């Protein structure tokens, strides 16, 4: 197995908690485990050694990072990449005053059903490459624009070509031409049977205009009986019972969490369910941002993800999400980077990614910057200078 020594790293984010340094604005609580003048040894697909460059062991090849910062690859724990068409006109209408509505999903369903398997696959491949070029090395992909047995199963089969973390979201909206009762029967019956072999997770859009709490409970229970693990879209557009349901069921993560009452926050703090915030959605729908500060200060674990989808948020940029989390949601730069990497991994119940430590997958992002702080300090600027994914240089460094 060949080894690479990546040395000359000006600032390395490991996500291995270190001693608090209250006077260091980069990481006052030590959550990022920063190492200055660092080096990392990659051996095959995993990380073999991490430490100060002056202590580094020899390796087969040496890459000099030239004083640049290195961070763990982003773990984007929420995306809807299997679709066809776009809804740019709907976005334009929103920017001139139309509200976002869950009903727009049906437009994408029609385009997705009309696409061939090859068209869907090449579209996902293009988006995954776009994400990788921006530093995302692990991702989750949902179905949810097929909404028939055949189209949900093939959406998941397409997604499986790109990630193990595939999520069955047949319960996205009730498609035209059926009743909610009949559709829930379909989702929990034949559609689940066809989807389950291609999925690790099951999700429900629990929202006015989509599925209510009782329907969500029944759908998640059916998924669990079929070997899938639950996650939930909840409290995105209105206050409701979705977040409390996620906490009650002890789900690993509940996503959006935009409209939260005090008892939603305490339920999350008590259950340990991760709140995955998706600030690109609020940016693109003009809804208010979730109250990240209130969640974190109450002891809730927070992740951030892109929610890349053609309707509510068509960004694939985790760096944009970090900048929004810092500027608009009052997360510290350290909290935001941690939420986009280590917490994304936890939201997918993955212990092999999101952290730069021996034994973890060798997913590293080299930044054209001396510090990760530039991700929020220089919003909109493409700062990814190189990416190693599973030890392979998928974006060659300078
Ligand atoms: O996560 N909330 C539900 N699903 C997507 C949006 C889907 C769409 O508008 O096409 C979301 O925001
Ligand atoms: Fe979503």
Short description:
With 398 residues, the chain is α/β, with parallel strands linked by helices.
What does this entry look like structurally?
This protein is α/β, with parallel strands linked by helices and 398 residues long. The protein folds into two domains: 3-73 and 354-395, Urease, subunit C, domain 1, CATH 2.30.40; 75-347, Metal-dependent hydrolases (TIM Barrel). Helix content is 34%, strand content 21%. It contains 14 helices and 18 strands. It has helices spanning 88-95, 105-114, 117-133, 149-160, 180-195, 213-225, 242-249, 262-271, 279-285, 292-297, 318-329, 333-340, 342-347, 374-377; strands spanning 3-12, 35-43, 46-52, 61-64, 69-72, 74-76, 136-139, 141-142, 166-171, 201-206, 229-230, 232-234, 253-256, 274-277, 302-304, 364-367, 384-389, 392-395. Strands 1, 2, 3, 4, 5, 16, 17 and 18 form an eight-stranded mixed β-sheet that branches. A hairpin with a 2-residue loop joins β2 (35-43) and β3. α5 (180-195) packs parallel to α6 (213-225) and α7 (242-249) packs parallel to α8 (262-271). The two termini are 24 Å apart. The model has no long low-confidence stretch (mean pLDDT 98). The structure holds N-(iminomethyl)-L-glutamic acid (NIG) and fe (iii) ion (FE).
């Amino acid at each position: 197995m060949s080894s690479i020594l990546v040395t000359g790293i000006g600032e390395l984010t490991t996500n291995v908690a270190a001693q608090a340094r209250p006077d260091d604005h980069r990481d006052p609580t030590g959550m990022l485990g920063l190492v200055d003048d660092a080096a990392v040894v990659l051996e095959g697909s995993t990380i073999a050694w991490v430490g100060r460059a002056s202590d580094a062991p020899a390796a087969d090849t040496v890459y000099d990072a030239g004083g640049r910062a290195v961070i763990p690859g982003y773990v984007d724990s929420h995306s809807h990449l299997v679709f066809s068409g776009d809804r740019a006109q709907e976005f334009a209408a929103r920017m001139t005053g139309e509200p976002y509505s869950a009903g727009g999903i049906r437009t994408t369903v029609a385009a997705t059903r009309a696409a061939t398997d090859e068209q869907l696959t090449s579209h996902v491949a293009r988006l995954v490459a776009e994400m990788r070029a921006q530093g995302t090395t692990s991702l989750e992909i949902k179905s949810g624009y097929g909404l028939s047995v055949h189209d949900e199963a093939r959406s998941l089969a397409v997604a499986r070509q790109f990630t193990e973390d595939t999520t069955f979201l047949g319960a996205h909206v009730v498609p035209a031409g059926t009743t909610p009762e009949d559709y829930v029967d379909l989702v929990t019956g034949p559609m689940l049977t066809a989807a389950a072999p291609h999925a690790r997770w099951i999700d429900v859009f629990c929202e006015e205009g989509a599925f209510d709490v009782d329907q969500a409970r029944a759908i998640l229970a059916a998924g669990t009986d079929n070997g899938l693990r639950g996650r939930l879209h909840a409290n995105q557009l209105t206050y409701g019972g979705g977040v409390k349901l996620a906490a009650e069921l002890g789900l690993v993560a509940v996503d959006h969490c935009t409209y939260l009452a005090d008892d939603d926050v305490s339920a999350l703090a008590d259950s340990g369910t991760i709140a995955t915030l998706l600030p690109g959605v609020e940016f693109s729908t003009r809804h208010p941002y979730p109250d990240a500060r209130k969640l974190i200060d109450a002891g809730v674990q927070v992740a951030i993800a892109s929610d890349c989808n053609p309707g509510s948020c068509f960004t694939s940029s985790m760096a944009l999400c970090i900048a929004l989390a810092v500027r608009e949601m009052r997360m510290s730069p350290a909290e935001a980077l941690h939420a986009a990497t280590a917490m994304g991994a936890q939201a997918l119940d993955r212990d092999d990614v999101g952290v730069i430590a021996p034994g973890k997958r060798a997913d590293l992002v080299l930044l054209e910057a001396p510090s990760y702080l530039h991700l929020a300090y220089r919003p909109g600027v493409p700062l990814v200078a190189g990416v190693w994914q599973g030890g392979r240089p998928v974006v060659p460094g300078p």
